[in-house]
Design brief:
Layout (H helix, E strand, L loop, with lengths): L4 E6 L5 E5 L18 E7 L9 E8 L7 E5 L2 E6 L2 E6 L9 E7 L13 E2 L5 E5 L32 E6 L7 E7 L5 E3 L5 E5 L8 E5 L4 E2 L12 H5 L11 H5 L12 E4 L3 E7 L11 E6 L4 E10 L2 E11 L7 E6 L5 E5 L21 E5 L16 H8 L4 H22 L14 H11 L2 H11 L6 H9 L4 H13 L5 H7 L5 H10 L6 H11 L7 H10 L4 H11 L7 H9 L5 H10 L5 H12 L4 H12 L4
Parallel strand pairs: 12-16
Antiparallel strand pairs: 1-2, 2-3, 3-4, 5-6, 6-7, 7-8, 9-10, 10-11, 11-12, 13-14, 14-15, 15-17, 18-19, 19-20, 20-21, 22-23, 23-24
Helix pairs in contact: 3-4, 3-5, 5-6, 6-8, 7-8, 8-10, 10-12, 11-13, 15-16, 15-17
């Protein structure tokens, strides 16, 4: 029924949509195109709900989707990621056959594992996706290089972006943002209901440095030298013979010791990471609920990552869900079904990508899809009601992305229509006007579990008649994750955050304060500088997540923010926390302070090297003066 599944999605009817990779590397491998008609998108259906697919149909077949690495089903639109294109295939007449094919984006990375990967529907109604370091750039449907919301061309040339990137955009591809960069080859993104973004990233093969990342917005994630773009291996080679253990290799591999690199959440060692999802269902045991579920085709395992708070960031530990001794078991993707079970695609090959595969016989190629659920559970597809307020609110709570998309878009349309119809009315309770979806959402906001409350908040905040009030309430909520979600939504909706940041800058949660720091990015003026200084004085000298958030928030305003911090700290900068900020913030004043630290006889050799490295990231007369000061003091 299928062959070589590279990626899957599950629609609102519980059907599994499969991208096949029969023609994997057909453009430059001696076996050529094994199916000259091109690869397929296959829909698998279990019509009698016995857990075994009994019906298969081809939605689309063509050479333009050979070795597609991503599929996202959004109603009658199917987004297929197949370098050098991201395509939208639309079923206009509802016969499960694609009628139109359009280009959404284009990249480099033709017929390459490190090209563009799957789109994912987020809780904010946006698309999330990424590409590996062969993607190089992102262009629109007309081949024009995209400029992101910060005004930067989306191109991996170090100005400012490098290597692989993670993105967010509207459903039509507009308003694109670069969420993070300098990855090697992340397979896809996973977004939880609070808007926190996760992914895995493959190391340079064989270096035991595969990682899991919390994608802190605007972060550099250190695959190459953040300053020059050089590879990591030369720096690692210099450690040989100096007693540096191999366990430290990931620190060098991902430039974790350089200022300007976001920490890794977890290093999982050797492997070939592939699909990832956030499981926000109830069917699987509690240990897997609200956690990442991840496939690793190299180690032949599907595992969960239990995330815990680590200062302003996160730590994680692994729990295996299942693996196989079958050396041809190669899990390539995982998705959550409407009933809360999970489905795993098995590419089924003796190798793990890397521009090769063992099976070159078209007639004998295989592929498998596994369904994982508690023992005795019978597959089902919950009834979908998109015509009533209660049905829409229930659908919004589904663990399945395709169902959430249908509910989200219909609720948003209803809220916008209701607001438009009543915006001129006087003496009318806008909250109760039109369809009764707002009261249903408010009930979910007030009484639901935190993640469901966050989903309700995303829509209530976009109600023009009530959104501002709702966000203000959420910013004062007792749950820090909801305060974080509210901050993110308020930023997207371009609210005036200043009065709220003044309160949240002393929040008890370092993760909330992290979001405050990120929210200050490119905000100018004395109020912003004072808020940043307030946040900076709370750095504990140990939390690298917090320090990087401060630096991201100070981007292009380092001088003003650093000056405000010096003033607020009363000149007491030479402390464990102050030295951290001097090391990380690249203002014109920091070279003089770095010179003092380098010249100080109490500074250890390790710290002296660290401070010299910080000087590499600064240029200009101030740096030159600092170097002359160091020479004059005879630090060497």
């Amino acid at each position: 029924m299928l062959r070589n599944p590279t990626d899957i999605d599950i629609d609102a009817r519980g059907r599994v949509w499969v991208c096949e990779g029969v023609n994997y590397r057909s453009s430059f491998k001696p076996w050529g195109a094994l199916d000259p008609a091109g690869d397929r998108i296959v829909i698998l259906e279990d019509t009698d709900h016995d857990g075994v697919a009994d019906k298969a149909k081809t939605f689309y077949q063509g050479t333009n989707i050979n070795s597609a690495l991503g599929i996202c089903v959004l109603g009658n639109r199917v987004i297929v990621s197949c370098s050098p294109k991201v395509l939208i295939l639309t079923d206009v007449d509802g016969d499960d056959r694609a009628d139109t094919v359009e280009t959404l984006f284009s990249v480099e990375g033709f017929d390459h594992d490190h090209g563009v990967h799957a789109m994912v529907f987020g809780p904010d109604g946006k698309l999330y996706f990424n590409f590996g370091n062969a993607g190089k750039h992102l262009k629109d449907k007309n081949g024009k290089l995209i400029v992101d919301l910060e005004g930067n061309e989306v191109e991996a040339k170090g100005k400012p972006y490098r290597e692989g990137m993670a993105f967010r955009c509207d459903l039509d591809g507009s308003n694109l943002e670069v969420l993070g960069h300098n990855f090697r080859n992340p397979y896809e993104l996973a977004v939880d209901s609070f808007g926190t973004v996760w992914q895995s990233d493959n190391d340079d093969d064989g270096n035991r440095s595969v990682r899991i990342n919390y994608v802190m917005q605007h972060g550099n994630f250190g695959y190459t030298d953040p300053l020059t773009g050089a590879g990591w291996s030369e720096a690692w080679k210099k450690t040989k013979g100096k007693g540096v253990p191999d366990d430290d290799k990931p620190l060098y591999h991902w430039h974790q010791m350089d200022p300007g690199v976001v920490p890794n959440t977890l290093v999982t060692g050797a492997g070939a990471p592939t699909g990832i999802a956030i499981y926000e269902g109830k069917l699987l045991p509690p240990v897997f609920q609200n956690q990442m579920i991840h496939c690793d085709a190299g180690t032949r395992v599907v595992r969960s990552y239990s995330v815990s708070q680590d200062g302003a960031g996160y730590a994680a530990k692994t729990t295996d869900i299942f693996s196989s001794s079958d050396t041809w078991f190669r899990p390539s993707d995982v998705c959550v079904a409407p009933d809360g079970s999970i489905f795993v695609a098995d590419w089924n090959d003796a190798g793990v990508g890397g521009h090769n595969m063992a099976d070159h016989e078209f007639k004998t190629m295989k592929g498998r899809i596994f369904r994982i659920a508690p023992p005795g559970n019978k597959p089902s597809v919950p009834k979908l009601d998109l015509k009533t307020a209660s049905g829409l609110t229930q659908a919004l709570q589904s663990p399945n992305h395709s169902i959430r998309y249908l509910a989200w878009t219909k609720i948003q349309s209803s809220l916008a229509k209701t607001s438009s119809q009543t915006s001129q009315a006087k003496g009318v309770d806008l909250l109760m006007a039109g369809p009764a979806v707002q009261p249903q959402l408010l009930a979910l906001w007030k009484n639901g579990e935190p993640r469901m409350r966050a989903r309700a908040l995303q829509l209530l905040a976009r109600d023009p008649s009530h959104g501002t009030i709702q966000i203000r309430q959420a910013l004062r909520d007792g749950n820090p994750d909801l305060r974080i979600a509210a901050l993110r939504i308020a930023q997207e909706l371009k609210m005036d955050l200043t009065p709220h940041l003044k309160t949240l800058a002393r929040d008890s949660s370092p993760q909330v304060r992290r979001e405050c720091a990120l929210a200050l990015r490119h905000r100018s003026g004395p109020a912003a500088a004072d808020l940043w200084a307030e946040l900076a004085t709370q750095h504990d000298g140990k939390d690298r997540w917090y320090l990087e958030a401060l630096a991201i928030g100070a981007d292009k305003q380092e001088n003003e923010f650093f000056t405000a911090w010096l003033k607020k700290s009363g000149g007491q900068w030479n402390t464990s926390t102050g030295r951290d900020i001097v090391w990380r913030i690249h203002s014109t004043q920091t070279p003089a302070y770095l010179a003092q630290l380098i010249s100080d006889s109490a500074t250890t050799e390790k710290d002296r090297a660290r401070y010299f490295r910080a000087l590499d990231f600064i240029s200009g007369k101030e740096k030159d003066d600092a170097l002359m000061t160091i020479l004059g003091r005879g630090a060497f």
